[in-house]
Design a protein that fits this description.
single chain, 309 residues, alpha/beta, TIM Barrel, 2 domains, 8-stranded parallel β-barrel, two-stranded antiparallel ribbon, 11 helices, globular
C-alpha cells in the first residue's frame, strides 16, 4: 500500500475511533482527522493548454453551422492547442463505442489529446434511487472516457437539501464519490471534484469532503472562476491547488460576488507554486462572442504560461 493511501486509511480509522471515544483526549487527535497529504508532485510543474468544449456551448448544443465535437477538435488544432476537453453534454444522445472510437481516431490525426471530460451529477441528494442512478451514470461515462483516452473527469458534489443536516449530506456525498472513484481507478481514470457552488461554493466545504474521501484516483478540479461567495477567491484557489489533478481557467472572477477581469498570471502562478503538472483548460463564459474572444484569451494564457518558465 502506498504511503498516501495508508495515511488516508489510518486517518479515517483514527477519526472513527476518536468519535467513539477510543482516545482519551479527542482534541489531541483532531488535527489528524482534518488533514490528508496533498498530491505528491515533482518540481517544477509542467502545464499544458487545453480548451473546454463548454466554451462553445451555444454552437455545440444547437449544432449551429455544423458544429459538433469533431469540428471542435479541429478548432483546437487550428489554434495550436495540445488538448481538448470533450464535455459529455455535447455527445449525441445515441452515442456508442463506434462513435467514441471514431472521435478518438480523429483526435489522434489532429494531434490533439483528450485532456479530460465532464459529467452532470448530484451526490448530495437524499433520494437513494436518484443518487444510485447518478453513480451508475458516472460509471457509464467513466467507461466512455476511458475508451476515449481521457485521464480525468470532473464531477460535482451537489447541493445540501434544505431539510437535511450538513453531516448527513456530507456522508452521502463522500460515500458516492468513494464508489465512483473505486470504479474509476479500475479504468485508469481520475475523478476531479470541482469547486462548483452548492456544498463546494467555498474552499472549506470542498476540502472537508476531499480530505474525507478514502479512495484512489481522486482529487480536485481547480476552477478559477467558481469561488463567488468570498472576498478573496485567489486565496481560496491557493488552498485547493495542492489537491488539483485538473485545472480550468475562466477570464472573469467574482470577489464578493462582483465581476471583474481575472488576473491570469496570478492564477497560473498559484498553480505553479503548488508544482501542479497537468492540463489547464480555458473554459470561456464571458459575454463577448466566443469565436472572437477565445483566440485572444488563449494567446493571453500562452503568454502567462511562458512568463512562468
Amino acid at each position: 500500500m502506498s504511503t498516501p493511501t495508508f495515511r488516508r486509511s489510518f486517518l479515517k480509522s483514527a477519526c472513527t475511533l476518536s468519535a467513539l471515544g477510543a482516545f482519551g483526549n479527542f482534541q489531541r487527535f483532531t488535527p489528524f482527522c482534518q488533514a490528508i497529504e496533498p498530491i505528491s508532485r515533482i518540481a517544477p510543474g509542467r502545464m499544458q493548454l487545453s480548451l473546454a468544449a463548454y466554451s462553445l456551448r451555444d454552437l455545440l448544443k444547437g449544432k449551429k453551422d455544423g458544429w459538433d465535437l469533431f469540428k471542435f477538435v479541429d478548432y483546437c488544432h487550428e489554434h495550436g492547442l495540445s488538448g481538448a476537453e470533450l464535455t459529455s453534454y455535447y455527445f449525441p444522445a445515441d452515442v456508442n463505442d463506434a462513435y467514441i472510437v471514431e472521435l478518438k481516431e480523429h483526435c489522434r490525426r489532429r494531434g490533439v489529446s483528450v485532456s479530460g471530460g465532464a459529467i452532470a451529477n448530484d451526490f448530495c441528494q437524499k433520494d437513494d434511487d436518484k443518487r444510485k442512478r447518478d453513480i451508475e451514470h458516472t460509471k457509464l461515462w467513466i467507461d466512455r472516457y476511458a475508451l476515449l483516452g481521457a485521464g480525468a473527469i470532473r464531477i460535482f458534489a451537489g447541493t445540501q437539501p434544505k431539510d437535511d443536516s450538513w453531516p448527513a449530506t456530507k456522508d452521502r456525498c463522500i460515500g458516492a464519490i468513494e464508489q465512483a472513484c473505486q470504479y474509476a481507478h479500475s479504468k485508469g481514470i481520475y475523478l476531479a471534484l470541482e469547486n462548483h457552488g452548492g456544498v463546494t461554493a467555498k474552499a472549506d466545504g470542498l476540502l472537508e469532503i476531499v480530505r474525507a474521501v478514502n479512495a484512489p484516483s481522486f482529487g480536485v478540479n481547480f476552477d478559477s472562476g467558481n469561488f463567488r461567495s468570498t472576498e478573496d477567491p485567489y486565496g481560496e484557489l491557493a488552498s485547493i491547488a495542492p489537491y488539483a489533478i485538473n485545472a480550468q481557467i475562466k477570464v472573469e472572477m467574482f470577489p464578493g460576488g462582483k465581476k471583474e477581469m481575472a488576473d491570469l498570471g496570478r492564477i497560473l502562478k498559484i498553480l505553479k507554486d503548488s508544482h501542479y503538472s497537468g492540463w489547464v483548460a480555458l473554459e470561456y463564459e464571458a459575454a463577448e462572442a466566443p469565436l472572437e474572444a477565445i483566440p485572444r484569451w488563449l494567446d493571453e494564457i500562452k503568454k502567462s504560461l511562458a512568463a512562468l518558465t
